[in-house]
Specification:
Structural class: alpha/beta
CATH architecture of the largest domain: Alpha-Beta Complex
Strand order of the largest sheet: 3-2-1-4-7-6-8-5
CATH superfamily of the largest domain: Spore Coat Polysaccharide Biosynthesis Protein SpsA, Chain A
Number of strands: 8
CATH class of the largest domain: Alpha Beta
Helix content: 40-55%
Largest sheet: 8 strands, mixed
Shape: globular
Strand content: 5-15%
Number of helices: 14
CATH topology of the largest domain: Spore Coat Polysaccharide Biosynthesis Protein SpsA, Chain A
Distance between the termini: 48 Å
């Protein structure tokens, strides 16, 4: 009978073979970076809805990038100032005026947060209520730190129409300049793909569904068919919850584009850690048992191969080395997409360990009553109670 450490090494290698060969091409970023060129005669009327809370650093660039898009159809924008204290609303209006697009921007003053809603979704709800007067065909749900370049909104509309889809969503290219960002951000995208393989999300016959909250273009009729944003009002991971709801009424598509970028800067590892901890426990269904299972699984798949390459048994070393090589190779497409050194692939076990710590912290913060903390609001209890 094989020693336990050899069995663990074999299990890790089998897991990586499965993930690379059979898990929805989650690691192949280039496969899903294929928005079509704009085409067609009829263009949907689009309203961009942008919730913004204390976004003075980003809102002007976001507003300008959307309103300056070369979109052939009607494109207007609603910014919901979610009780900001830094002049976000004034800066949004100033940005639109600077490019002569004030007539296409509406700035709403957000109302106090009611019980049962997360802050972002309540802001989105107010924006959608106002959007009715524009009789939109589609709504672009995006964030105040997202900027658009090229003709990407026209490409998104073309994908939506030509594929007869109810939703298209882009995983925005996150900022990746500081050491903290280079250490953690590409892995964030890789792990998201492992949880929600894009190949499965984009296959109508599979139940897997997801979206990336920074950029979601959804048909107005499909939103109404699922009961509007009210249907996910308590969801902490609102993008994936919305993707699942929309896939229940039609096909969806999730992909990448260099023309959709986040300009939010994270200088410290703790900044990114808070972002991950905000939703990690919700992702694991607020279950300590699931957290324990996830921790064991990640330890076997990511961490054990590094330790076991130093085992005395040659077979164990060989199996462990194979796992380490495969995980490093699986990371390469994402690293190339972000313009990072391929050597980061060898560091994936260390990076995964950091994510394990952030996830455990997420559970700890929830048990303290501070789960889902973001910009002064603890919101995880809302989602957990639903």
């Amino acid at each position: 009978m094989l020693p336990l450490i050899t069995l663990v090494a074999a299990l890790a290698l089998a897991a990586w073979i499965y993930l690379i060969a059979l898990h929805g091409d989650f690691w192949r970023t280039s496969k899903f970076d294929d928005l079509p060129a704009p085409s067609g005669q009829s263009w949907p009327r689009i309203v961009a809805v942008v919730p913004a809370r204390d976004e003075a650093a980003n809102i002007e660039r976001s507003v300008k990038s959307i309103l300056q898009q070369p979109y052939p159809g009607s494109l207007s924008m609603i910014v919901i100032d979610d009780q900001s204290t830094d002049g976000t609303a004034e800066l949004a209006a100033r940005a639109a005026a600077a490019i002569g697009a004030s007539d296409r921007l509406t700035v709403l003053r957000g109302q106090p947060l009611p019980a049962g809603w997360t802050g972002k979704l309540w802001a989105v709800k107010q924006g959608l209520n106002h959007a009715v007067q524009f009789s939109p065909d589609a709504v672009l749900l995006t964030d105040a730190d997202i900027v658009y370049s090229g003709d990407v909104i026209a490409r998104l509309a073309t994908r939506l129409r030509s594929g007869n889809l109810v939703m298209v969503s882009i995983m925005a290219r996150l900022n990746c300049v500081s050491f903290a960002e280079r250490f953690l951000i590409p892995a964030f995208v890789l792990f998201f793909g492992m949880l929600y393989p894009f190949g499965w999300v984009n296959t109508p016959r599979r139940r897997m569904a997801a979206a990336a909250g920074g950029c979601i273009l959804a048909r107005w009729g499909a939103l109404q068919a699922i009961g509007g944003i009210d249907s996910i009002r308590g969801a902490l991971i609102d993008d994936c919850a919305l993707g699942a709801k929309l896939k229940s009424v039609g096909p969806i598509w999730l992909g990448f584009s260099q023309d959709v970028r986040s300009i939010r800067v994270s200088e410290r590892i703790s900044d990114i850690g808070r972002m991950i901890s905000r939703t990690a426990y919700a992702q694991l269904r607020y279950s300590l048992l699931v957290v324990a299972g996830m921790t064991i699984a990640m330890a076997v798949i990511f961490v054990a191969p590094v330790a076991l390459v130093f085992a005395a048994d040659p077979l164990t070393r060989l199996l462990a080395a194979g796992s380490w090589v495969l995980m490093a190779l699986a990371f390469q497409p994402t690293l190339r997409y972000y313009g990072q050194s391929p050597l980061w692939g060898a560091a994936l076990p260390i990076i995964a360990s950091a994510y394990m710590i952030f996830t455990l912290n997420s559970a700890y913060q929830h048990l303290r009553g501070r789960g889902g903390m973001w910009k002064g609001r603890a919101q995880a209890n809302i989602s957990a109670s639903r």
